[in-house]
Amino acid sequence: MTGNPLAAARPDRPPAGPAAPRPSLHDPERFGEVFDAHFAEIHGYAAKRLGPDAAPDIASQTFLEAFRHRDRYDPARANVRTWLYGIATNVIGRHRRDEVRGLRARSRLGPVRDEGGHADRVDARVSAQGLRGRLAAALAGLPSGERDVLLLVALADLTHEEVAAALDIPYGTVGSRLSRARRKVREALGGTNPMREGQDDHG
Questions:
Q1: Residue 111 burial by CB count (10 A; 0-12/13-18/19+): exposed, middle or buried?
Q2: For the residues of 35-57, what is the DSSP string, one character each?
Q3: What angle is formed at CA 87 by the lines to CA 81 and CA 88, rounded to 5 degrees?
Q4: Whole-angstrom Cα distance, residue 83 to residue 98?
Q5: Torsion of CA 2, 6, 11, 16, to 10 degrees
């Protein structure tokens, strides 16, 4: 038998070739690839938290700061998407009053259908349409750190490890903040779980 015996034993795998270069945040000429890949998602996250009017400015500021500080990006700590969510959350943090004011305004819009029950659906309502009624009021009452963790999990679908990297906080702090936030929101909703039932608070 000739050739690579491993390749012959695994015909389902294509022959190994030179690895494609990954976009580098340190190369200003290639930063546009990062923008194209992630802008829509970051814009959507900003819209869900601060509303559609503020989203373009928040997203633009996020990428401006990412470009300015691209030399600080450490791929060993987080992937680019997670890093951008961390920057976006920090930018949103400068608008805490606007976010709380907006949540309180949405709390007066009345509940989304079926808000009082079906605990496993509450996390789906933590969305642009779902942040209203009692849920919005509960989120407005959370300390900013707990709200950030809860919404990064619910809106951005980040893991606990990714939230820790995005916010530069210990892994255990993510679990404790998320547990407290869920408990407070659950109580505000009359006992329904603000996240998926059965999800471990610590991993």
A1: middle
A2: HHHHHHHHHHHHHHHH-TTTHHH
A3: 85
A4: 23
A5: -100
Estimate the crossing angle of helix 96-107 against helix 31-50, to 10 degrees.
50
SS3 (DSSP) at 21: coil
The tokens of 123 are what?
Answer: 């996390």
Structure tokens at 62: 């996020």
pTM attached to this predicted model: 0.75
CB atoms within 10 A of CB 87: 19
Find where tokens 């190369």 sit.
Answer: 27
Q: Please give the Cα distance from 134 to 189 (Å, whole number).
A: 6
Per-residue confidence in pLDDT tens, the chain, 203 aa: 444 433 333 344 444 444 444 455 777 778 899 999 999 999 999 998 998 999 999 999 999 999 999 988 999 999 999 999 999 999 999 999 999 998 998 888 765 554 444 444 445 555 544 677 888 899 999 999 999 999 999 999 999 999 999 999 999 999 999 999 988 888 888 765 544 434 444 43
Residue 77 near residue 165 (C-beta atoms within 8 A): yes
Alpha helices in 76-143 (DSSP H): 80-93, 96-107, 122-125, 133-140
How distant, in Å, are the alpha carbons of 11, 91, 139, 148 from that of 53?
53, 15, 20, 20
Q: How far apart are CA 20 and CA 16, in angstroms?
A: 11
